[in-house]
Amino acid sequence: MMNFFSIIVIPAVYATFTAPTIYVKKTNEAEFTAISDMEYETCPTVLEIHNLKENSDILDMAFLEGLCKSVINIQRIRISGNFQGIGEGLFDHLLKLENFQATDMDSLTELSISSSNLKHLDFSRNHLEKVDIEFKDDLVHLNLSRNFLEVQNLYMNTMSHPLSLQLRTLDLSYNRLTKIDFFLSFWNLRNLLLNNNKIEHIKPGMLQKYPNLLVLNLARNKIHEMENGVFIGLTQLVNLDISHNNLNDINVQIINSLRSLEELNLEGNIIDNFKYNELEHDMEILKINENDTYLHGKKIDGEKLATFINVTRKIFVEVISDLFLRSKSENIKLICYPTMKSPTILHITTLMVATIATDSFGKRHDFEFTAIGERDYHHCPTALEIENTKTDEFLDIEYLDGLCKNVVGVLRMRVSGNFYGIAESLFNKLPRLEDFQGNDMVNLTDVTIGTWNLKFLDLSRNNLEKVSIEFMDELMSLNLSRNQLTDDNVMMTSMRPPLSLKLRLLDLSNNKLTKLDTLYPFWNLKKFILNDNQITNIKPGILQRYPNLVTLNLSRNKLLNLPDGMFTGLIHLVNLDLSYNQLSDAKTKIINSLRSLEFLDMIGNDITEFEYEELDHHLEVLRINEQHTYIHGKRVAINKEPKKTTTSTEMSSPSFTYME
Questions:
Q1: DSSP state of 654
Q2: Is residue 181 a contact partner of residue 162, using CB atoms and an 8 Å limit?
Q3: pTM of this prediction?
């Protein structure tokens, strides 16, 4: 059972507004989830808002002040959901705000802001078509990737001198830019990410605006020519990626002018006659095409490259193991490689993604990396990520064999993009695969698979209309949320008895389910997430299939009543969310039957009367309606209906590491 005392501590470090649930996370900071409509004298320093209201809101001071008082103390904000705009002067009023992240907002198409005191600003993965930003000195990272920005609708201005601007990373990847002539001068910029745009030409001297640039990514554009002088002034450039453009030749003298260059990627172009012997210095990695890859000046094949990777694995672990073991963080993700010349120096690269991780006891650390998909290696990496931007593909063992050999060694896999299907026997042929994540595949509508040795399976955020899964013993977590699944099209089978199945988490939220009758019994299930469906009724005895359930989320469905016996057998249930349904009676008798219950949320229903005295035991948190909210048995006042809810419980950390 979780203690509620942490929520009482007002000067909190991190809070997420959510409905329902208050929980304490075991980290090096005091972190908790606050009740969304409680009013505090002092806002938490970290605030996450996911707005699910049908009508889009403007995020401004009035909105924030409706959540908590003294908003000027907020240091980090993350928002998503139905926001159609950001108040133009918002950041000027939030004097302590350093980190602002706003993603996955389909309604956000236009933005006009000043960066004020911000250090980190992330507006990636929205539908932005027009952006006007005034830069102030303190901004260090700006991410506008994965939007719909075109040249004529991107405005950058500042009253500061270029040397005063502290911007280190500018990410404009995955937009519709055709040129970069209009960009401001950022003399301190280190990372410029422009991949996956429509850039055709870069004028000589244009990049002189960024004299301290270390990483420049121009991959997957439409560049057909590199003129002499295009990279003039980039004396510090270490990593240059111009792969997958339309180049048929490149003057070697252009590369020779980049004296600090350590990694160059030219593959995916039409360069047939590269004059390697005219290069004046050896690079760590030079990739010209499928047949020409050089490592420290020596041409290598796939087998030697695999050997190099194994060597760097050992060096990498030796270099940072002490730092890592002293870290209090549970996960550290780095995109880097240690140079063979100086193993203590780490550089960003596209060659591999290294993940160092510990389990909950801090005893395990694995080295994992993602190899470049279009090369042919003798040994696949243990963690493989694939984003297919080509025409529709079918994900099967033959497709994977085309990326790298010995795919049986893969432990973790993440796929996205243009895949229309997954082979039924795929996981059977990957005996070591434990973790599979397949998201954002709009053409994936039907899946029939067996879980085999998988422990974690995530097929959320697709367009799945039909799923057929045969469960094996090992699977612990299954996420099918945010699809188009209906009752008759979710088929779960197993040859194993329910007691042997290890499934702990089942997430079917944000689908189109109306009942639970057809779902498989999972006796070891701990967390069942069913919010944002269309469930109208749950027959008594159905939930007995999940006798070890600890958390049950049925919020935002269409439940009309709670029949007697509905929760029979749920003797371990601690957290129950029935908010935002169509209930008219709280039924204290049913609440009394749940002897382990600590958190109950029924707000957003049609319950007008509640007799608290009829309860047999006090709950940590009980929310019935605006007039009846109790904490540790004491009734508290609520001022207004919450403006947002979320099932998210964490702020995500950046998925890449920058060179400073």
A1: P
A2: no
A3: 0.48
